[in-house]
Design a protein that fits this description.
alpha/beta; Rossmann fold; 2 domains
Length: 668
Amino acid sequence: MRKIQTILVLAALLVPAAPLLAQDARNTVLSSRTHFAMPVFTTREAWLERAAFLRKQILASAGLLPMPEKLPLNAQVFDKLDRQGYSVEKVLLETMPGFYLGGNLYRPLGRQGPFPGVVSPHGHWAYGRLENTALVSVPGRAISLARQGYVVFTYDMIGQNDTNQIPHHWSEARYDLWNIGPMGIQLWDSIRATDFVSSLPDVDPARVIATGASGGGTQTFFLMAVDDRIKAAAPVNMISATAQGGVCENAANLRAGWPDFSNMVVGALMAPRPLILISNGGDWTVETPKEVYPAIQSIYRLFGAEKNVTNVHFPDFVHNYNQQSREAVYQFFNAHILNKPEPVKEEAFRVDFPQELLALFGRTRPANAVKDLDELVRNMIRDDKSVTMRLQPRDATTLAAARKEFAERLKFSLLAFRPRATEVRSEKKAGTVATGEQVVLSREGKGDRVLATWLAPRKLNPEMAPTLIVHPNGISAVVNSALAKTILDKGGVVMSIDAFQTGSAVAPRDTSNRAFDNFNQTNDANRVQDILTALEYLQSRSKAQTVNLVGLEAAGLWSYFARAVAGEGVNLVADLVHFAADTDTEYVDKFFIPGLRRAGDFHAASVMNTQGRALVYNAGLQFPADWARQAAKSAGSELDLRTGSVDVPALVTWLTQKQPDTPRRTSR
């Protein structure tokens, strides 16, 4: 009895002095119109740690983690026109097999290179890269920059001008499983555009810069965030605390997991490289001088580089990239790239007719061009599967390599992490359930709330590992179950939780907006997180070196992936409910986590679930059994894999088999 009392007293040590929030913060749905705040970073090291993570989160959500192979661009540069102080040529790049990006290349005439290079995406203007009005002239800024001594590449958004093999706006849940979307393809095009410009013989690859407005501003700041070849940038009239862009400017999981991940943070990822923010009084950048600029400036201050970031605000303008805005950008670039700080007056220019600029005017794409979006997506999924299949472990060496790769992939798909013991908070609730108690778990600074029930046996068996049982119907389906009673009778501690949106945790949460998973984690991802939080609480409170995780019915899927990222010291029992592991609709309908299929799905989890014993049952025909068995064999770990069900006596027998203690993790 003294041992039981000791275990129960441990809970009090974890109870914080202040009461927890009354509501799980994850039920507050974020969107593009949420007013975001900039997180506070007091040290450069803290910022660099978060920045490194967020860069990879951007790449992962864009389908670029791991980075696809950079195949030859097969660049076609043709139909050169010599104009006053510059030349212009048509360009066609094969950024993916059979997918072609169109653009124009503007170069200085009568000057000696090498020159700085400029990648210049356009925005949501009616004529794309050919837009030429008083509000915005994409060719105009290219002409002006070329006359000043830059080589400029203007290129299309998808679905516009020469790059219309696929639409501009499209979105589908099954594509999200593979991190395939407009934003990702456009970011890849921008990266390949940077490859192209950097490779030109008359360009200095150490002086490549980027600028665009509106949606082109979004492409600019995502490119500068993930590609350090961009040495200076001007995202014009876009970065805001209150508007985060539309379909082509977001992606599933892009901003999920961090309630403060706005475009202000993306802009700050440019630090300490030179950055100019152009804003105006007639769109969502109206508060840039008061809110966005100081927020980004605070990050530059950590580097002692405040002089490298500036804001030019035009209170009387509407959404634009007009002459005054362009001239502000010219002066900034010239000061930081050409060492010429004096103001620049834009000279008059004449834009050529569309037929003189369109790469496909009077021409057809090469014979290998993909026909439509469906074909492109099929090709991308085929290539992603091929990359995953090459990681199948054969021995200890290949297993170690696969584990390293899949650990990163799953991290940025699940966005779920096992917290440290010091990060777990608990609040004891009044009353008891059966022979135990109820506590509310949370993670420091996250605002989540997870109801947990702790059931202690009448006589504790120190040889019996504590067991977390998770059921899709929550605690009520566990506390009086035959499984829980049998474990308690054998002297084992039983814990259960109402995982996110199950049992008492069911609460209003509007997930109907198609962009929901761009800003919020899905219910299934949050359930994986709750299991990880509960595992840490169970292990910390019990002081056990090894704990058991039992996932019943659909909760077996959540548990299988939670165990994959939990680290050492966890034995797994998981019901896979005959899940069709190679069918996209199965994930969309039953276990929806963006990026999970590109991350390696059950192939990845089977490789990671090799740090303890595992009993996996009701495995479907599509479950990668060969991967799981070979991974377990290579790791020397125990795997009991069954296609049929397991009854309670057999399950408890498996749990109570005495095994050597697993070394406890010392760090995470």
